[in-house]
Amino acid sequence: MPAWLRGLVPVLIAIAVLAVLQLLLGHLPFFVYLASIVGVNVILAVSLNIVNGMTGQFSIGHAGFMAVGAYTAGKLSFLLKDVAIAGLPAVVSDQVQFLGTLLAGGAAAAICGFIVGLPSLRLRGDYLAIVTLGFGEIIRVIVQNMEVFGRALGLSGIPQTSSLFAVWFCVFLVVLVARRIVGSTHGRSLWAIREDEVAAEAMGVNTTGYKVRAFVISSFFAGVAGGLFAHFVPIINPGSFTFVKSIEVVVMVVLGGLGSTTGAIVAAVILTLLPEALRTLFLQLGGLGAGVSLAQKVDQIRMPVYGILLVVLMLVRPQGLFGTREVWDLLPRWIPRARKGLT
Amino acid sequence: MSECLLQASQVGIDFGGLRALRGFDLEVRNGDLKGLIGPNGAGKTTAFNLLTGVYVPTHGEIRMCGERVNGRPPHQINHLGLARTFQNIRLFRVLSALDNVRVACLSEARPLFPRERIAALRRRAGGSSPVASMMDALNNYVDWWRALLLTPGFQEEEQEITRRADELLAVMGLSHRRNEEARNLPYGEQRRLEIARALGTRPRVLLLDEPAAGMNTREKADLMVLIRQLRDQFSLGILVIEHDMKLVMGICEDITVLDHGVTIARGAPEGVRQDPKVIEAYLGDSYLAAHGMPVPPSPSNSTSETPAP
Ligand SMILES: Nc1ncnc2c1ncn2[C@@H]1O[C@H](COP(=O)(O)OP(=O)(O)O)[C@@H](O)[C@H]1O
Ligand SMILES: [Mg+2]
Question: Cα separation of A180 and B62, whole Å?
Answer without folding.
Answer: 40
